[in-house]
Design brief:
The protein is of the alpha/beta class. Helices cover 28% and strands 23% of the residues.
Length: 265
């Protein structure tokens, strides 16, 4: 399978993060193309061949707060109507979408992005504590992405006060420090015929490569892409206690065109 990784932005080492992510996905048979030109990357979708679009970028208009002024010339961004049509059309048509960490901050002037991704950062309201110790736990929702996994502790950022779309049921919650409020950090979503996963964790390579989080990242990409790869990649779903198979995964989480009752479109 092939994935297109859209990357780039400020305050994160996106080049290293994208390389780390591509390395993890390669373990389950993904070939990754990394693109920092968002518009050019989305244009590549029209050529076909991609099972998954991965957004791990930090691109928004950068309006208001003067602390972003030094970065605006290079990084301020508003997705064009053509780009919006390409991204939305890819997912509605059955392409997978995997949003990682800063994806929820992107495209702040595009209301449909919340419907597509399942939740977004609200500038002026959402926030996060400093990078530091984080405790992650499963919610009561059952899903192949988290089957057999225990909670874990590591270092990351916990995005807080996100705006979730109707019907989104988080699979993981995280708390920053000791006793902080639980915030949703992983969910699945349907948009048209496409599967969507958003993982709010993944600030840096250490987070992406953390043993348990890396397992979740690989499962997320594989599930969003439809779980169809032409070879047995079930190992990515069996780690940490998962003992099912791909057909069981598909039956547990059918695609919208298989008449899933919770399909959004």
């Amino acid at each position: 399978m092939r994935t297109l990784i859209l990357s780039g932005g400020i305050r994160h080492d996106f080049a290293d993060n994208a390389a780390a992510l591509a390395g993890q996905l390669a373990m389950d048979g993904f070939d990754s193309d990394i693109e920092t030109d968002i518009e050019a990357g989305l244009a590549r979708l029209e050529g076909g061949g991609y099972a998954l679009l991965t957004v791990m970028a930090l691109r928004w208009r950068m309006e208001g707060n003067p602390k972003y002024a030094p970065h605006r010339e290079e990084w301020a961004f508003s997705l064009s109507p053509e780009g919006r049509a390409r991204l939305g059309g890819f997912v509605r048509g059955g392409g997978g979408l995997f949003g990682l960490h800063t994806a929820c901050l992107c495209f702040d002037d595009w209301a449909e992005w919340r419907d597509i991704l399942g939740g977004v950062w609200i500038w002026g309201r959402s926030w996060h504590p400093p990078l530091g110790p984080v405790s992650v736990a499963r919610t009561a929702e059952d899903h192949p992405l988290t089957a057999g996994l225990a909670g874990f502790d590591f270092v990351d950022e916990v995005y807080s006060g996100l705006s979730l779309a109707d019907g989104v049921r988080p699979l993981l919650e995280a708390r920053a420090g000791k006793g902080g409020p639980a915030e949703p950090v992983l969910w699945t979503h349907r948009y048209g015929r496409g599967r969507v996963v958003f993982d709010a964790l993944g600030h840096d390579r250490a987070s992406i490569e953390h043993e348990t989080h890396a397992e979740i990242v690989r499962r997320a990409a594989f599930w969003a892409a439809g779980g169809r790869s032409g070879k047995d990649d079930a190992r990515s779903l069996r780690g940490s206690g998962w003992d099912g198979d791909l057909e069981e995964m598909r039956a547990a989480s059918p695609l919208p065109d298989e008449k899933s009752p919770d399909s959004n479109r």
